[in-house]
Amino acid sequence: MAYLFAFFRLLTGIVFLMSAVSKLRGRAAYEEFTVATRALTRLPARPVAALVVTVEVAVAPLLAWPPTMLAGFCVALGLLVAFTVAIVAAMRRGRRVPCRCFGASAVPVGPGHLARNAVLIVAAAAGAVQAGIGAVPAWTGAVPAGLGPAGLAAVALAAGAAAALLSAIGEIAGLFTSSP
Questions:
Q1: In the chain, what percentage of residues exceed pLDDT 90?
Q2: How far apart are CA 90 and CA 84, in angstroms?
């Protein structure tokens, strides 16, 4: 169980950190995200974009500190649900809005993004349940008990690979769909 919890924690933290960094890497990236936000929601784009990035930045530190892990998972879960609702609404309205979740993607939001969000929602919810019931492994030194340095390295590698795959899922799905 320690491996699974560490995987959920690292995956969620890495994905949100990657997402925030991709939006904050430059003025143009942030503006592209703001434009996509305007097209995805009927709410004021600038405040929503600023709020999204602020919350994304907060997730990783919340997950890193044991007393706030549950809050980190819950914040991530709330943001993922909001993203999913915005994507579904855009798809229903027939809007072909490029996803700027992880950078300058030209692929419009679609089923691949919903699948990615579903995986992340499951990971965040499972992590929140484990943190909420106290099934969190104690730490011995720098690693969770029961993992050891090699186990932590393996989990970190798996979580990093999964995060990289999930961040590219829109592009991957775009390869298999027709775009005008």
A1: 47
A2: 10
Instruction: Compute the Cα dihedral for 28, 33, 38, 43 and give only its sign.
Output: negative
Longest Cα separation, the chain: 55
Strands (DSSP E) found in 21-144: 139-140, 143-144
Closest Cα partner for 121 from 73, 68, 157? 73
- What is the per-residue pLDDT across 12-50, written as a single tens digit (0 to 9) for each? 999 999 999 988 989 988 988 888 888 888 889 899 999
Is pTM beyond 0.70 here? yes
User: 15 near 162, Cβ under 8 Å?
Assistant: no
Query: Token pair for residue 100?
Result: 């700027």
Question: Is the separation of the CB atoms in 60 and 13 below 8 Å?
Answer: yes
Are 12 and 127 contacting, i.e. CB atoms less than 8 angstroms apart?
Answer: yes
**Exposure of 68 by Cβ count < 10 A (0-12 exposed, 13-18 middle, 19+ buried)?**
middle
